[in-house]
Design brief:
This protein is an all-alpha fold. It is built from 18 helices and no strands. It is globular, with a radius of gyration of 21 Å.
């Protein structure tokens, strides 16, 4: 329920009235959406070109070596997600958001002019730190602003902004690489994202007062014996709570898919004769559909529940992997069909998972719960790249895609078994 203005409406540190709701906070919410466009754009720099930089520019012969940049990115981002939740107990969300952008400043320059592959891997450590801090804070701050009744829509809009930017940037870098080479021009558009993201982050207002207001209004008081610390919340979110456990494993497998396709698809489709522009189209289409679709699916999850979108979304993704191989004799068609199904399936899953975690977490430990969920989800990047590298070196790229389909379908079935709906009075 949104907060109506009254004579006793609380105020923030600057004396402005604080109310919960999307309409009441549309200006700040919109600003955070634009910030997340910059967040997604920065990571989108790598989707098309970096695997090919590894194989063509630095002449790496092992698929596992090529995918090492994704492992570095995924592991660092996962750990940073976890730390970001804990950091909210000591620092304001805005401070963490600005710090993330400062850390990201060297990334586009390193990608553009790295003299060795080790520099690319190091740049991805910085990128993981940047993404873990900035993306975590944009989603937390949006959830803070809108309150419980619009969590699905808020997360859908946040992820839509970020992943649409990932896709558009991947598409743009593919065309720039085809016209001007793999480096440095495609990577230098990241300078725009870093500069704009930092400037906008400095303009954002913190949401601490909104969190305090939601805590005061929460219908279920925090049990006196419930520990809100990171250690207890990590255990609760990872395995003790069935629904949170189900969401965490689904998030991990979802991003395992993304990490796998990030490394495998450029190599798979170039091996079957596609050029950089076509690969850029495939790599861009997947996150664009993933991004744009979340506006509708996030809102839909507020109406019909989280579980149906999570379960069926994972199964749609599994079908995308299967069709990528079935249609591979026509590689452009295979790439487009798989990108469409992977994008739509992920759009169904992504905001519903974040909203489900928020539903099952008390506001007092929600930031840590989201940090834990995002830890497991983004470990999937590293796991996907590691699995892809080992399987591709041992059995080939096709076997890697088959393994992804099996894992994704199994994850959907686990989600169906473990996740329950949590319908608050606001929904």
């Amino acid at each position: 329920m949104n907060t109506p203005p009254t004579a006793t409406t609380p105020t923030d540190a600057a004396g402005r009235p604080v109310r919960l709701g999307l309409r009441e906070n549309w200006a700040q919410f919109t600003l955070l959406v634009i910030v997340n466009v910059c967040v997604g754009g920065l990571v989108g720099l790598e989707r098309t070109t970096v695997p090919l930089i590894g194989s063509r520019t630095f002449h790496l012969t092992s698929d596992l070596a090529v995918f090492s940049f994704i492992i570095a990115f995924g592991f660092t981002k996962a750990v940073t997600n976890l730390a970001a939740g804990a950091l909210t107990a000591r620092f304001h969300r805005k401070q963490i958001l600005v710090a993330g952008w400062l850390i990201g400043i060297p990334v586009p320059f390193a990608l553009a002019w790295a003299p060795s592959w080790g520099w690319i891997v190091a740049a991805n450590v910085l990128l993981g730190l940047n993404q873990g801090l900035t993306w975590s804070m944009t989603v937390n701050m949006k959830i803070d602003l809108v309150g419980p009744s619009r969590r699905g829509l808020a997360t859908g809009l946040n992820e839509a902004a970020g992943y649409t930017a990932v896709g558009v940037t991947a598409l743009l870098t593919g065309y720039l690489a085809a016209a001007y080479g793999l480096r440095p021009l495609p990577e230098l558009i990241g300078v725009v994202f870093v500069g704009a993201g930092l400037a906008l982050a400095l303009a954002v207002r913190d949401t601490a007062a909104h969190v305090a207001l939601e805590l005061a209004q929460h219908s279920k008081p925090l049990p006196s014996d419930e520990n809100t610390g990171l250690k207890s919340t990590f255990a609760r979110t990872s395995w003790l709570n069935r629904s949170l456990r189900g969401a965490s494993q689904a998030g991990l497998v979802n991003n395992l898919n993304d990490g796998l396709t990030w490394g495998v698809f450029p190599l798979l489709f170039t091996d079957h004769g596609l050029g950089l522009a076509a690969v850029g189209l495939i790599k861009g289409l997947y996150p664009v559909l993933w991004g744009l679709g979340q506006v509708a699916t996030g809102h839909l999850s507020d109406r019909i529940g989280r579980k149906p979108l999570i379960v069926y979304g994972m199964l749609v993704q599994a079908g995308g992997f299967v069709l990528a191989l079935v249609l591979l004799e026509r590689p452009l068609l295979a790439g487009i069909v798989s990108a469409v199904l992977l994008g739509l399936g992920t759009a169904m899953v992504y905001p519903a998972l974040i909203a489900s975690v928020s539903d099952h977490a008390h506001p007092a430990w929600r930031a840590n719960a989201l940090g834990t969920y995002r830890f497991w989800r983004d470990i999937g990047y590293a796991a996907g790249a590691l699995v892809a590298g080992v399987l591709a070196d041992a059995l080939g790229l096709n076997a890697t895609v088959i393994a992804a389909a099996v894992l994704t379908a199994a994850s959907g079935l686990l989600a169906a078994r473990w996740i329950t709906e949590h319908r608050s009075d606001a929904r």
